[in-house]
Write a structure and sequence with these properties.
This protein is α+β, with helices and mostly antiparallel strands and about 375 residues long. About 30% of the residues lie in helices and about 30% in strands. The chain has twelve helices and 21 strands. It has helices at about 20-25, 50-60, 60-65, 65-70, 95-110, 145-155, 160-170, 175-185, 190-205, 210-220, 225-230, 280-285, and strands at about 1-5, 5-10, 35-40, 45, 50, 80-85, 90-95, 130-135, 135-145, 230-235, 240-245, 250-265, 270, 300, 305-310, 315-325, 330, 340-350, 350-355, 360, 370-380. The strands form four sheets. Strands 1, 14, 15, 16, 17, 18, 19, 20 and 21 form a nine-stranded antiparallel β-sheet that branches. Strands 2, 3, 6, 8, 9, 10, 11 and 12 form an eight-stranded antiparallel β-sheet that branches.
C-alpha cells in the first residue's frame, strides 16, 4: 500500500479556499481547482517507489491484477479527483468509445497536433464520469423537458429569445432541442452578445430560478453558453449525492466541492461558457438530444457497510465507508487496484493514518483494512 502525494491543478475556475479547508492548511490566495489521484500521465501521483505511472509500468499485472490488465490494458483505467469549483466550468459533452476512436483516428490521419487548440480528441478513449458532492454542489445535467425550457425563456420577456421559445414548442422533442441548440451556437456573435446581455439583466431582476444564469452571464458575458445552459436541468446536490455523466450528456459544474471519478481520457467537446474552441458540427454529432430527469444518485448500502454508487460502466467503481467512532475494521482486500481517499475524520488504512484529503494506492490482491472514525472513498474497477 502506497501513500500518494498528489498534484493540485490551479485552473482559473477553482476555489481559493475549498481544498485548503479540506486539507487543513492556509489558502495561498490562488485558485486550487482539482487534486488528482492516479496514474494520469499529465500529473501522476507520486509514491515512495516513484511516480505511480512508473510503478504500474514496471509490473502491471502485479500492481493491477491479471483480470484488470486483460480487460483494460496495462494502465490504471480511472482518475480520481477532488474537484473544487469556485466559478462555473465550461458547458461540455463527452463522446462514447466508438466516437472517440473514430474522432481520434480522423484527427491523427489529418495530422492535427494533439496539443492544437482546435483539436477535439486527445486520445481514443471515452470519458464517463461521476461527481459526488462533499458540500452542497450546483450543476447542470441533461436537457430539460422542452416545454419547461420554453417557459423559462418566455418568463424573461426578451424579444430575441421568442423564436427559441416557439421552436421549443415544436415536435418531436428531439428535433426541437437540436434546432434550438444549433440556432444558439450558430447565431451572429454580436447579436448573441446583445441577447445574452438582455437575458442577464432580466435574470438579475427576476432572481429565484434565474439566479444561476445571471451568475453564468457575469462570468461569461456575451457567451451563447448562457442561453444553452437554460435548456438544461439545474441540479443542487446535497453532500453524499452524486451525478453520473454518460456519453453525449451536456453538463457543467457550477459551484461546490466534490469527489470526481472518470475514465482516463481528456476528450471534451465544449458547448459554451469558455474562451476555448467550440466545434459546433462535431458537438451536434455527439450530443444526445434527450430530455429527462438528471438522475441524482444516492449510494446503495451493503451489509458490510460499503455504500456503492452504481453506474453502467466498468472503468471505475466508486463507493464510500462512513466509519463511526469505535467501529470494527473493514477488510477492503480486492483483486483489482484501489485508491482510498479520506474526506472526513481520521482513519487508518493499513499502516497509513489518513486525514481529510490524504490517499493511498492499494495494488491488486494486497491486504487492505480501514478503521477509525471518518469517511473513506474507495475507487476501483469492475473486472
Amino acid at each position: 500500500m502506497d501513500r500518494l502525494n498528489n498534484t493540485i491543478r490551479p485552473y482559473a475556475w477553482g476555489s481559493t479556499t475549498a481544498i485548503p479547508h479540506l486539507l487543513g492548511v492556509e489558502p495561498t490566495g490562488e485558485p486550487q481547482a482539482e487534486m488528482w489521484m492516479g496514474a494520469h500521465p499529465g500529473a501522476p501521483s507520486r509514491t515512495a517507489r516513484g511516480p505511480l505511472t512508473e510503478v504500474i509500468d514496471g509490473a502491471p499485472e502485479q500492481e493491477m491484477g491479471e483480470r484488470t490488465v486483460a480487460k483494460f490494458g496495462p494502465r490504471l483505467p480511472f482518475l480520481l479527483k477532488i474537484l473544487a469549483a469556485g466559478a462555473p466550468l465550461s458547458l461540455q459533452v463527452h463522446p462514447n468509445l466508438h466516437q472517440a476512436q473514430e474522432g481520434y483516428d480522423d484527427e491523427e490521419s489529418r495530422g492535427i497536433p494533439v496539443d492544437a487548440g482546435h483539436r477535439n480528441y486527445k486520445d481514443a478513449n471515452h470519458k464517463p464520469e461521476l461527481i459526488c458532492a462533499l458540500t452542497e454542489f450546483d450543476g447542470l445535467c441533461g436537457f430539460r423537458d422542452p416545454a419547461q425550457a420554453a417557459d423559462l425563456l418566455a418568463g424573461l420577456d426578451v424579444d430575441s429569445l421568442k423564436p427559441y421559445v416557439d421552436l421549443l414548442h415544436a415536435h418531436p422533442e428531439e428535433a426541437a432541442l437540436r434546432e434550438v441548440l444549433t440556432a444558439v451556437l450558430s447565431a451572429d456573435p454580436e447579436d448573441m452578445a446583445r441577447t445574452v446581455h438582455e437575458t442577464a439583466v432580466a435574470c438579475e431582476r427576476l432572481g429565484g430560478a434565474y439566479t444561476p444564469y445571471a451568475d453564468l452571464a457575469h462570468h461569461y458575458p456575451g457567451d451563447p453558453g448562457v442561453i444553452a445552459a437554460m435548456l438544461l436541468n439545474h441540479v443542487r446536490l446535497q453532500p453524499g449525492e452524486a451525478l453520473f455523466l454518460g456519453a453525449g450528456v451536456p453538463h457543467a459544474y457550477l459551484n461546490g466541492l466534490g469527489v470526481e471519478i472518470m475514465a482516463n481520457s481528456d476528450n471534451v467537446l465544449r458547448c459554451g461558457l469558455t474562451p476555448k474552441h467550440v466545434d459546433v458540427p462535431e458537438l451536434l454529432r455527439i450530443v444526445r438530444f434527450e430530455a429527462g430527469d438528471p438522475g441524482v444518485l444516492r449510494p446503495e448500502a451493503s451489509p458490510d457497510g460499503e455504500e456503492v454508487y452504481e453506474t453502467p460502466i466498468d472503468e471505475f467503481r466508486l463507493s464510500r465507508y462512513v466509519l463511526p467512532e469505535g467501529s470494527a475494521a473493514h477488510d477492503l482486500t480486492r483483486e483489482t487496484p484501489q485508491v482510498l481517499l479520506c474526506t472526513a475524520g481520521s482513519v487508518q488504512a493499513g499502516e497509513h493514518p489518513l486525514r481529510p484529503g490524504e490517499s493511498v494506492f492499494v495494488p491488486a490482491g494486497e491486504k487492505a483494512q480501514v478503521s477509525g472514525a471518518g469517511t473513506v472513498f474507495r475507487a476501483t474497477v469492475v473486472a
